[in-house]
Specification:
By secondary structure, this protein is mainly α. Helices cover about 75% and strands about 0% of the residues.
């Protein structure tokens, strides 16, 4: 199988972010199983998934569309993690690490979008 997405640093960092989001939500209260925990995991998985799908497309325009969707999911994840922090489901150390990865993925996606000639 041809996997062009695996050559992208943005995809690799998004996978790291998704893994960390899963590990972080492992200790959320059981009452959040179908709420915030599920939302965080879905948003996180959406980021590398959309990068991968876009990279597999044949046109630059389609790739850009999926990169923008990935950025939207990244913003969604950022919001959900902020709420989890305020609810004290995430401690300060976890938040710092997650936030650093969020920022790294955002910069990489923004750079990739600019490189492909897209608008932010």
């Amino acid at each position: 199988m041809n996997t062009p997405h695996k050559k992208l640093d943005a995809w690799a960092s998004a996978i790291d972010l998704t893994q960390l989001a899963y590990q972080t939500t492992d200790h959320f209260p059981i009452k959040e199983q179908y709420g915030l925990l599920s939302q965080i995991r879905r948003a996180a998985v959406s980021i590398p998934s959309n990068i991968a799908e876009g990279a597999a497309r044949h046109g630059k325009k389609e790739f850009l569309q999926f990169l923008h969707i990935a950025r939207g999911s990244l913003s969604e994840l950022d919001t959900q993690l902020e709420l989890a922090k305020r609810l004290e489901y995430i401690d300060q150390n976890e938040w710092v690490t997650l936030n650093e990865l969020l920022e790294r993925v955002d910069k990489m996606l923004s750079g990739l979008i600019r490189h492909l000639g897209g608008k932010l």
